[in-house]
Specification:
Blueprint: H1 2-15, H2 18-26, H3 42-59, H4 73-86, H5 104-120, H6 149-171, H7 175-191, H8 203-217, H9 228-277, H10 279-335, H11 338-396
Helix pairs in contact: 1-5, 3-4, 3-5
């Protein structure tokens, strides 16, 4: 049965243009005729099942998001079943049956959602147009002692046709034929006995002969299962059987009804008596329930305060640990002489670097002094050479 329903679901999906609007748009591979009837790959089948359900719900006019591959399967199944109940369909199976992605329950959900999608799109089924079936002639083995109804009718029809032909031939006889016919009639009249004929056959022997040939003269007409008369007769037989059974069954049902009514009355009276006897116990139970609820409420409030104080205690403990760590670091730094040794080494290094810098400064100053002296000497030489040239030129003139 699931295989047949699965094929019907595939036809309904094709009517909804599933191949173009779902398969090509979502880039899904096509499903076979028995895809959800046979378990193959549970994960792939479940994702395909939820995707088709979401698409059918959207076609039915419901706002339903397309599920993703990593969504919670329980939430997705619950949403699909809730939408199915919204359409008025009953769900009498646990939701875990749909996690497999195949089976009769998945096919049931797809079938109902496909019907709702077709209904929402305005599609309706027309009445089926049954083709006219040609009745095949059954090859029946003929027996010498049995004749069918068709053969009897055929033989009667042939006899009637022969009589009609004979009558037509009699109407077109010529004069010679009339002569011969009259001569035959005369001969028959002359051959007729003038006295009453008496049979010489023994009556007992005649009866024995009749009994012997009687089975061979019996005409058996086979029943046709498609004959409406047989159907009507069967209907009348069934009707008589139902009426005869109804009269007998009705008396038993009436007795059963009376017994059930008396039993229900006894149960009602017993319930009333028990309720009256246990009224004070029920009131005490209700009072105890109220006290229990009040105690639970106080406990909840107290547990909330304890939780808050526990959180504050944790914060204070954490702050205390941090302060302790700082105190330990400072104490260790105060008692440790390593930093002082490092400071002394740094001072010595600075002094060495100062001495080296002073030497470099002295060297640079010496170089600068030598450069200044050279420049001054070169300037004096140039000035002296210029004066000597001017004196020579003056003497020449």
């Amino acid at each position: 049965m699931p295989f047949v329903i699965m094929e019907e679901i595939l036809d309904k999906l094709r009517l909804l243009d599933y191949e173009r609007q779902f398969q090509m748009k979502m880039k899904m591979k096509p499903i076979s005729r028995h895809y959800f009837a046979i378990p193959t790959n549970p994960g792939e089948q479940f994702f395909m099942f939820t995707s088709i359900c979401a698409w059918l719900l959207q076609k039915a006019g419901r706002s339903f998001e397309q599920p993703q591959e990593y969504d919670d399967p329980n939430a997705t199944i619950s949403s699909i079943l809730e939408e199915l109940r919204h359409f008025g369909h009953s769900v009498d199976f646990p939701p875990s049956k749909l996690k497999q992605g195949c089976g009769e329950h998945c096919i049931y959900v797809l079938d109902k959602l496909a019907d709702e999608a077709l209904k929402s799109s305005g599609f309706h089924w027309d009445k089926p147009d049954y083709p006219q079936e040609e009745l095949e002639e059954e090859n029946v083995v003929e027996d010498d002692a049995e004749l069918t109804l068709n053969e009897v009718e055929k033989s009667i029809f042939q006899n009637e046709m022969e009589e009609e032909e004979f009558e037509k031939e009699e109407q077109i006889l010529d004069l010679e034929g009339l002569k011969r016919l009259s001569q035959k009639n005369q001969q028959v009249e002359h051959s007729k006995p003038e006295e009453i004929m008496e049979s010489t056959t023994d009556a007992a022997a005649w009866k024995l002969e009749v009994e012997r040939v009687l089975p061979q003269l019996k005409v058996t007409i086979r029943k046709d299962n498609k004959d409406w008369r047989d159907h009507v007769e069967q209907m009348h037989q069934h009707k008589d059987g139902i009426e005869s059974s109804l009269t007998e069954t009705k008396s038993y049902l009436d007795k059963l009804h009376d017994e059930i009514s008396r039993t229900l009355e006894k149960i009602g009276s017993r319930e009333k008596y028990i309720n009256n006897q246990l009224e004070h116990l029920l009131s005490e139970y209700r009072a105890a329930q109220d006290q229990l609820s009040e105690t639970k409420e106080r406990y909840r409030q107290a547990s909330g305060g304890v939780t808050e104080r526990s959180r504050m205690l944790a914060d204070v403990t954490e702050e205390l640990e941090r302060v302790k760590m700082e105190m330990e670091d400072r104490g260790s730094s105060m008692t440790d002489g390593a930093p002082l040794v490092k400071i002394k080494q740094a001072i010595q290094n600075l002094r060495k670097e100062n001495v080296q810098m002073e030497i470099r400064i002295g060297v640079v100053e010496h170089v600068l002094l030598q450069a200044k002296l050279k420049d001054k000497t070169s300037q004096n030489k140039e000035v002296h050479s210029n004066k000597t040239q001017d004196t020579f030129d003056y003497n020449a003139y």
